[in-house]
Protein backbone atom coordinates (compact mmCIF):
# COMPACT_ATOMS: atom_id res chain seq x y z
CA UNK A 1 0.00 0.00 0.00
CA UNK A 2 1.04 3.59 -0.51
CA UNK A 3 2.69 5.42 2.39
CA UNK A 4 1.50 8.80 3.57
CA UNK A 5 3.38 11.65 1.87
CA UNK A 6 3.99 14.02 4.78
CA UNK A 7 5.73 16.63 2.63
CA UNK A 8 2.76 16.85 0.26
CA UNK A 9 0.34 17.19 3.19
CA UNK A 10 2.50 19.95 4.70
CA UNK A 11 2.41 21.87 1.41
CA UNK A 12 -1.36 21.48 1.18
CA UNK A 13 -1.88 22.67 4.75
CA UNK A 14 0.29 25.73 4.12
CA UNK A 15 -1.89 26.51 1.10
CA UNK A 16 -5.05 26.14 3.17
CA UNK A 17 -3.66 28.44 5.87
CA UNK A 18 -2.88 31.05 3.21
CA UNK A 19 -6.23 30.54 1.46
CA UNK A 20 -8.20 31.34 4.63
CA UNK A 21 -6.23 34.59 5.00
CA UNK A 22 -3.69 33.61 7.63
CA UNK A 23 0.10 33.81 7.65
CA UNK A 24 1.65 30.32 7.64
CA UNK A 25 4.85 31.86 9.04
CA UNK A 26 3.12 33.26 12.14
CA UNK A 27 4.57 31.79 15.34
CA UNK A 28 1.48 29.74 16.25
CA UNK A 29 1.10 28.36 12.72
CA UNK A 30 4.67 27.78 11.59
CA UNK A 31 4.73 24.11 12.73
CA UNK A 32 1.04 23.43 12.04
CA UNK A 33 1.65 21.81 8.62
CA UNK A 34 4.05 19.30 10.23
CA UNK A 35 1.62 18.56 13.06
CA UNK A 36 -1.27 18.05 10.64
CA UNK A 37 0.82 15.75 8.42
CA UNK A 38 1.80 13.64 11.43
CA UNK A 39 -1.83 13.54 12.60
CA UNK A 40 -3.09 12.48 9.15
CA UNK A 41 -0.51 9.70 9.05
CA UNK A 42 -1.95 8.41 12.35
CA UNK A 43 -5.68 8.87 11.67
CA UNK A 44 -5.42 7.31 8.21
CA UNK A 45 -3.11 4.44 9.24
CA UNK A 46 -5.90 1.95 8.50
CA UNK A 47 -5.30 2.47 4.79
CA UNK A 48 -2.20 0.30 5.14
CA UNK A 49 -3.88 -2.56 7.02
CA UNK A 50 -6.36 -5.26 6.15
CA UNK A 51 -8.88 -5.70 8.98
CA UNK A 52 -9.31 -9.37 8.04
CA UNK A 53 -5.70 -10.04 9.12
CA UNK A 54 -6.86 -9.69 12.72
CA UNK A 55 -9.03 -12.77 12.23
CA UNK A 56 -6.19 -15.00 10.97
CA UNK A 57 -5.64 -16.36 14.47
CA UNK A 58 -8.54 -18.49 15.58
CA UNK A 59 -8.94 -20.76 18.56
CA UNK A 60 -10.71 -24.06 18.69
CA UNK A 61 -13.42 -23.79 21.28
CA UNK A 62 -16.71 -25.63 21.18
CA UNK A 63 -18.77 -22.51 21.74
CA UNK A 64 -21.64 -21.84 19.36
CA UNK A 65 -23.41 -19.20 21.42
CA UNK A 66 -23.36 -15.45 21.19
CA UNK A 67 -20.14 -13.46 21.52
CA UNK A 68 -20.73 -9.70 21.90
CA UNK A 69 -18.19 -6.96 22.47
CA UNK A 70 -20.01 -3.69 22.97
CA UNK A 71 -19.08 -0.06 23.47
CA UNK A 72 -15.89 -0.22 21.39
CA UNK A 73 -14.86 3.44 21.03
CA UNK A 74 -13.69 4.61 17.62
CA UNK A 75 -12.69 7.83 15.86
CA UNK A 76 -12.83 8.31 12.13
CA UNK A 77 -12.74 11.01 9.45
CA UNK A 78 -15.73 11.71 7.22
CA UNK A 79 -14.62 11.29 3.64
CA UNK A 80 -17.02 14.01 2.50
CA UNK A 81 -15.68 16.84 4.69
CA UNK A 82 -12.49 15.45 6.29
CA UNK A 83 -13.81 16.25 9.76
CA UNK A 84 -14.10 13.71 12.57
CA UNK A 85 -16.94 11.48 13.53
CA UNK A 86 -16.76 9.29 16.59
CA UNK A 87 -18.75 6.89 18.66
CA UNK A 88 -19.08 3.27 19.70
CA UNK A 89 -19.29 0.02 17.82
CA UNK A 90 -21.00 -3.12 19.05
CA UNK A 91 -19.82 -6.34 17.41
CA UNK A 92 -21.51 -9.73 17.77
CA UNK A 93 -21.09 -13.13 16.18
CA UNK A 94 -22.08 -16.73 16.78
CA UNK A 95 -19.08 -19.01 16.21
CA UNK A 96 -19.37 -22.12 14.08
CA UNK A 97 -17.29 -25.30 14.07
CA UNK A 98 -15.19 -24.14 17.03
CA UNK A 99 -13.76 -21.07 15.23
CA UNK A 100 -13.46 -18.24 17.78
CA UNK A 101 -11.15 -15.27 17.76
CA UNK A 102 -9.66 -13.17 20.53
CA UNK A 103 -12.04 -10.50 21.80
CA UNK A 104 -9.45 -7.78 21.19
CA UNK A 105 -9.38 -8.76 17.51
CA UNK A 106 -12.97 -7.53 17.13
CA UNK A 107 -11.96 -4.13 18.53
CA UNK A 108 -8.82 -4.03 16.37
CA UNK A 109 -10.85 -4.65 13.22
CA UNK A 110 -13.12 -1.71 14.10
CA UNK A 111 -10.08 0.50 14.69
CA UNK A 112 -8.36 -0.43 11.41
CA UNK A 113 -11.50 0.18 9.38
CA UNK A 114 -12.23 3.48 11.14
CA UNK A 115 -8.72 4.82 10.44
CA UNK A 116 -9.45 5.64 6.81
CA UNK A 117 -11.40 8.38 5.07
CA UNK A 118 -14.71 6.77 5.82
CA UNK A 119 -18.49 6.57 5.93
CA UNK A 120 -20.24 5.15 8.98
CA UNK A 121 -22.25 2.78 6.82
CA UNK A 122 -19.03 1.36 5.34
CA UNK A 123 -17.44 0.81 8.76
CA UNK A 124 -20.51 -1.13 9.86
CA UNK A 125 -20.70 -3.34 6.77
CA UNK A 126 -16.95 -3.94 6.48
CA UNK A 127 -16.64 -5.18 10.05
CA UNK A 128 -19.55 -7.59 9.57
CA UNK A 129 -18.31 -8.81 6.18
CA UNK A 130 -14.75 -9.32 7.49
CA UNK A 131 -16.04 -11.48 10.33
CA UNK A 132 -18.22 -13.53 7.99
CA UNK A 133 -15.40 -14.04 5.49
CA UNK A 134 -12.65 -15.02 7.91
CA UNK A 135 -14.42 -16.66 10.86
CA UNK A 136 -17.22 -18.35 8.90
CA UNK A 137 -19.68 -17.98 11.82
CA UNK A 138 -23.38 -18.76 11.94
CA UNK A 139 -23.90 -15.01 11.77
CA UNK A 140 -22.53 -11.58 12.59
CA UNK A 141 -24.13 -8.32 13.61
CA UNK A 142 -22.55 -4.90 13.94
CA UNK A 143 -24.15 -1.74 15.26
CA UNK A 144 -22.37 1.61 15.13
CA UNK A 145 -23.52 4.75 16.93
CA UNK A 146 -21.72 7.98 16.09
CA UNK A 147 -21.78 11.75 16.24
CA UNK A 148 -20.64 13.48 13.08
CA UNK A 149 -18.84 16.80 13.40
CA UNK A 150 -19.99 17.70 9.86
CA UNK A 151 -23.50 17.89 11.37
CA UNK A 152 -22.37 19.47 14.64
CA UNK A 153 -20.00 22.28 13.70
CA UNK A 154 -21.22 23.14 10.21
CA UNK A 155 -24.25 22.66 8.00
CA UNK A 156 -27.32 21.81 10.05
CA UNK A 157 -25.44 22.45 13.37
CA UNK A 158 -27.15 19.84 15.53
CA UNK A 159 -24.72 18.81 18.29
CA UNK A 160 -25.58 15.61 20.07
CA UNK A 161 -27.43 14.07 17.13
CA UNK A 162 -26.54 10.39 16.93
CA UNK A 163 -26.52 8.24 13.81
CA UNK A 164 -27.05 4.49 14.16
CA UNK A 165 -26.18 1.97 11.46
CA UNK A 166 -26.46 -1.81 11.53
CA UNK A 167 -25.22 -4.73 9.46
CA UNK A 168 -26.76 -8.16 10.00
CA UNK A 169 -25.47 -11.32 8.39
CA UNK A 170 -26.32 -15.01 8.54
CA UNK A 171 -28.67 -16.12 11.34
CA UNK A 172 -29.12 -12.54 12.53
CA UNK A 173 -30.57 -11.62 9.14
CA UNK A 174 -32.79 -14.70 9.14
CA UNK A 175 -34.09 -14.59 12.72
CA UNK A 176 -35.67 -11.39 14.10
CA UNK A 177 -35.60 -12.78 17.67
CA UNK A 178 -31.81 -13.11 17.53
CA UNK A 179 -31.57 -9.50 16.30
CA UNK A 180 -33.86 -8.37 19.12
CA UNK A 181 -31.67 -10.20 21.66
CA UNK A 182 -28.60 -8.30 20.47
CA UNK A 183 -30.40 -4.93 20.55
CA UNK A 184 -31.58 -5.64 24.10
CA UNK A 185 -28.05 -6.57 25.24
CA UNK A 186 -26.58 -3.46 23.63
CA UNK A 187 -29.13 -1.21 25.34
CA UNK A 188 -28.39 -2.63 28.82
TrEMBL record:
MF-aspect GO terms: GTP binding; GTP cyclohydrolase I activity; zinc ion binding
Assigned keywords, A-Z: GTP-binding, Hydrolase, Metal-binding, Nucleotide-binding, One-carbon metabolism, Zinc
Any one Pfam family match given in the protein's UniProt record, by short name: GTP_cyclohydroI
Residues that, per the record, bind Zn(2+): 78, 81, 150
GO cellular component assignments: cytoplasm
Chain ranges of the GTP cyclohydrolase I domain: 9-186
GO biological process, one term: tetrahydrofolate biosynthetic process
Enzyme Commission designation: 3.5.4.16
Chain ranges passing through the membrane: none
Classification via PROSITE patterns: GTP_CYCLOHYDROL_1_1, GTP_CYCLOHYDROL_1_2
EC main group: hydrolase
Pathway: Cofactor biosynthesis; 7,8-dihydroneopterin triphosphate biosynthesis; 7,8-dihydroneopterin triphosphate from GTP: step 1/1
Reaction it catalyzes: GTP + H2O = 7,8-dihydroneopterin 3'-triphosphate + formate + H(+)
Subunit structure: Homopolymer.
Family designation: Belongs to the GTP cyclohydrolase I family.
Record protein name field: GTP cyclohydrolase 1
Protein's gene: folE
